[in-house]
Design goal:
- By secondary structure, the chain is of the alpha+beta class.
- The chain is built from three helices and six strands.
- It has one domain: Aminopeptidase (3-Layer(aba) Sandwich), CATH 3.40.630.30.
- It is 25% helix and 27% strand.
- Bound molecules: coenzyme A.
């Protein structure tokens, strides 16, 4: 499973989740803290540039968007990167995600370059 693989490599990967305040589940008399967002950040080491932290994914529950949850997740990823002595965070994002672009720009990210992604199924 992809998540277990990421979990095993804790040195180079982190997943942070945002949870809402606990809600009572009634009969079970237990409480749940629903996850309302998550971010995956990992350390990317290439021959051509120094180590960078890269955001592998960030999603906030639709009902929670626009309330600062994404900003907190992004900051958490940045704090983790800094704790590893990494001072650059990079994000690859699809050109169609206009709202996400606004989000990154709002929180201090600038467009570095535009690129194409090629893939081939190999056997
Ligand atoms: C992009 C995303 C993570 C932002 O999370 P968020 O919690 O809504 O962001 P914040 O509340 O911290 O910041 C709000 C800013 O994000 C942007 N934004 C992007 N999508 C938004 C949405 N659906 N609702 C409100 N703001 C949104 C706006 O620029 C907004 O700033 P504004 O209030 O000045 O308009 C979230 O909208 C999301 O999960 N989108 C779908 C998945 C996605 O596109 N992920 C990124 C892939 S690269």
């Amino acid at each position: 499973m992809r998540f277990s693989r990421i979990r095993r490599d804790r040195r180079n990967n982190r997943v942070f989740v945002a949870v809402a305040d606990a809600v009572s589940t009634g009969a079970a008399a237990a409480s749940l803290e629903p996850v309302v967002g998550w971010i995956h950040v990992f350390i990317d080491r290439l021959l051509t540039v120094g180590p960078r932290a890269e955001v592998g994914g960030i999603v906030v529950d639709e009902a929670w968007r626009g309330r600062g949850v994404g900003a907190v997740l992004l900051r958490q990823a940045e704090v983790w990167a800094l704790s590893r002595n990494i001072s650059q965070v990079v994000i690859h994002t699809n050109v169609v995600r206009g709202r996400a672009h606004k989000f990154y720009e709002r929180y201090g990210y600038h467009l570095l370059k535009q690129s194409r992604v090629y893939i081939r199924e190999i056997d």
